[in-house]
Write a structure and sequence with these properties.
This protein has 212 residues and is an alpha+beta fold. It folds into 2 domains: 104 residues, Alpha-Beta Plaits (2-Layer Sandwich), CATH 3.30.70; 81 residues, YaeB-like fold, CATH 3.30.2310. The protein contains 6 helices and 8 strands. The longest helix is centred in the N-terminal third of the chain and has 13 residues. Belongs to the CutA family.
Length: 212
Amino acid sequence: MTNHKMVLIYVTCSNEDESAFIGKSLVGERLCACCNIFSAIKSFYWWNDSLEEDTESVLILKTIDKNIEESIKRIKSLHSYDNPCIIALPVINASNDYLKWINNEIHNNLDLDNLDLNSLDLNNLDSDDLDLGCMDLISNLDKLHTTELGLKRIEKNLSLNVEDAVKWVKEKIENPQASITKKGKNWYILIEEYKITVNVNSYTIITAHKIK
């Protein structure tokens, strides 16, 4: 087995739950051997020509050089941000035993070539299966949340004057007239004059705005 160089992948997430979801996914898929999470950091950055202040979470993933591109692609597919901070950093030196452990855990992955694809019965899907994504959102409304930045976006875009914007979004999604579409990593909800965007994996309300 070839020992590859170790790298750290630094990722900022909307909150600790999203960091845990992404980290557990990549470690579970053995793209990375381990991850660490800093639950809350203070961030300052420019967004739409405005200097923003927000509380985020930091995820640090430990992997090897050959997995960088695939890991970045996977993180982007799971992340709630349109343009997340994902930075791969080289490790100059480390304990030999730890480096061996990193390599062993990542190489000890599933043999995908031996999966029995014939066991996947794709012909028996009925129309109800096509709505499972939307039902997943409706049945997990208690998981809906947003970030400080997301809250600012919603209140600014909709000129809302409500005490609980998340509750307002839940009520809109529960409306029988709501049209819910799952596309890529987000759900898109159309209701009345509003369009709401929710991340599929973290249940983060990314934004909401009026349809022009």
